[in-house]
Amino acid sequence: MCCTNLSDFVANLHALNGNCSTSGNHTSKLGYLNHPVTSIIYIVTAVLCILLSLVTHFKYNSVTVLNLRVRSNVISNVAWIAYLVVLVLRSTLGAVIYGITQANDRNHQVRLTVYFIADGVLKSLEILCLSLALYHQWRYRSAGFIQQEINSFNSGEYSVSGSEYGVLIARQLMSYKAAALFVTQFILAMLFLTLLEALHVKEKTLEPLYWTYMGLLWTQSITAIVWVILIATNKNEDGPTLVTKLLLVVGVVITLPGDIPSFVWSSCITSHKCIPWYYLTYYDLALFLSIPSVIIFFLVLRTEFLRLDQEAQYSVLGGEVDSLFSIHSQSTEHS
Q: Mind telling me which residue stretches traverse the membrane in this protein (predicted)?
């Protein structure tokens, strides 16, 4: 690529904050914390996602009908919870690695290589979960409530809250036709990430593999953009409000800078010029945007839950009443 040469590419690919990690301006510590701004951003993101995922699970993921907690696809926020959990894992890992690794440390190549792989896997998984959450929003919430209930009924997805998340997620994945595209993108990205590390000793093959991997990763991001455009352009009057649509669009858009790795920010976009401030890099600015995006997504899922929970309760209650009448009629006929 025109923005890199081979020696810089090999030297800085696994470096934290790209080539900014070796800059004298970014060797400072805050107490015992290396890369203080990056580490603090990751810590705040992890804590925020933990809190929001717990609130979502206990308050905005099911309704109580006849003393039973019932979850349907119309009100389920399992996909958003999965997205938040992946963000927790990735942010926690990033906070630890950035916090304990000195900026110009070349003595922990194994640690940096493992982090490069783990962060790549979690980043791709993060985009996968975001795409699933947006697809869920488009399929079950962007239409009117009657159509949403038809979709829910056809998928056979009503469940009592005792069901395990893993089972529910797996069932949703199997029921979504679009999930095949998401999973294929994820698998291909992981394949090229594996090849990238396996062939690391062959420098001439490293750069093409890296950009192929990045192309696959950004294809996942484009898929998320497509879904949010479909949500925003849906004109059903019984669907989400204009404000909700705008919030979703803004939330997705501000996640995009974070989909660009630190190496690309430092080596390509900023032309090897790091921000001359003491602790900060351009990647930190991109990474910071994940905090408002998470808050926006939480506001959206909460708004959508509150918009639909009453209708969902009435629907479930009506189904229970119909079931009781059916059982009573059958018992009467037998008697």
A: 39-58, 78-100, 112-135, 178-198, 210-230, 242-260, 280-301
Rounded to an integer, what distance in angstroms lies between the CA atom of residue 207 and that of residue 215?
12
Q: Kindly indicate the confidence band of residue 253, based on its pLDDT and cuts at 50, 70 and 90.
A: very high
Label residues 89-112 b or e (16+ Cβ within 10 Å = b).
Answer: bbbbbbbebbbebebebeeeeeeb
pLDDT tens digits, one per residue of 44-80: 999 999 999 999 999 998 777 666 666 677 888 999 9
Which of 322, 315, 323 lies closest to 148, judged by CA?
315
CA distance 257 to 216: 16
Give the residue from 331, 294, 322 showing the smallest Cα distance to 55.
294
In which element (H, E) is residue 70 found? strand 68-71
pLDDT level of residue 319 (50, 70, 90 thresholds): very low
In whole angstroms, how far apart are CA 1 and each of 142, 187, 197, 209? 41, 25, 19, 12
Give the Cα separation of 301 and 306 in Å (integer). 9
- Pick 20 or 33 by higher pLDDT: 33
Residue 71: strand pairing partners:
159
Cα(133)–Cα(229) distance, rounded to whole angstroms?
14
Give the Cα separation of 279 and 276 in Å (integer). 9
Cα separation, 203 vs 124, in Å, equals 24
